[in-house]
Amino acid sequence: MKSITINGSKRESVGKRATKALRNAGQVPCVVYGGDDVLHFSADKTEFQNLIYTPDVHTVVIDMGDDGKVDAALQDIQFHPVTDEILHIDFYQLFQDKPVSMTIPVRVSGNARGVKNGGVLRIINRRFRVRALPKDLPDFIGVDITEMKIGDVRKLSDIEKEGYEFLHPEKTVICQVRTSRTAIVDEVDEEEEDEEGVEGEEGAAEGAEGAAEGGEATEDTSKE
């Protein structure tokens, strides 16, 4: 998984007054859990643009200068209910030898055959929780829908996993191609055309047989 760097500084005071002062200065108070000690730091709100305002998922390297660097993952974020300003962010410290759970987005590729034939693609679940070592966390869960026909379904069991596991049942549906009114009409028209073709052929055959029988009867009458 790709990682982004956030430049922060350790917080010496964590009281309400200090926190308010940080926010007034354009800083976001943050906490990192999961290590030997809880780490309090702050960073400019612009540091989080590529982490929060994106559909992609990243791990984080928190660079605190002389205080060192910490590998972490976003755990929780609080926004102001009116202004949507970032109020506080919680991170979870990552260790390369310890598995971690993260929510990963689904990325669909290809143009389904069923959609070309009038079906509709329905994405049932757009994110899934996975568990893996930090180095094995995927950037996204790729689903190729090119060969999907009307009625086909893609499940978690269809995904090739490399180094990670889903924290959901294997039968969980990712997406499906469902029929639509247009597709049904097209199928009915094709069936009707096929039936009409068969009936026409049968009618032509019966006519030919009738003509042949009529010719023989006339021939017999004329001989008498």
Q: Could you give a short description of this structure?
A:
It is built from four helices and 14 strands. The protein has 224 residues and is α+β, with helices and mostly antiparallel strands. The chain has two domains: 3-94, Ribosomal Protein L25, Chain P, CATH 2.40.240.10; 101-178, Beta Complex (RNA Polymerase Alpha Subunit, Chain A, domain 2), CATH 2.170.120.20.
| Order of adjacent strands in the largest pleated sheet | 1-5-6-7-3-4-2
Order of helices and strands: EEHEEHEEEEHEEEEEEH
- The unreliable regions are 185-194, 207-224
| Beta-strand share of residues | 35-45%
For the terminal residues, how far apart are their CA atoms? Answer: 98 Å
How many structural domains in the coordinates?
Answer: 2
Please count the beta strands (DSSP E, at least 2 residues each).
Answer: 14
Mean pLDDT: 84
Would you identify the CATH H-level superfamily of the largest domain?
Ribosomal Protein L25, Chain P
Taking the sheet with the most strands, its summary is: 7 strands, mixed
Number of helices: 4
Helix content class: 25-40%
Subunit arrangement of the protein: single chain
Radius of gyration, CA atoms, in whole angstroms: 33 Å
Tell me what you see in this structure.
With 224 residues, the protein is an alpha+beta fold. It contains 4 helices and 14 strands. The chain has helices at 16-24, 49-52, 113-116, 181-223, and strands spanning 3-7, 9-10, 27-33, 39-44, 59-63, 69-79, 86-93, 100-109, 120-123, 127-132, 141-144, 153-155, 164-166, 173-178. It has a 7-stranded mixed β-sheet with strand order 1-5-6-7-3-4-2, with helices on one face. Strands 11-8-10-13 form a 4-stranded mixed β-sheet, with no helix packed on it. Strand 3 (27-33) and strand 4 form a beta hairpin. The longest helix is centred in the C-terminal third of the chain and has 43 residues, at 181-223. It is elongated, with a radius of gyration of 33 Å.
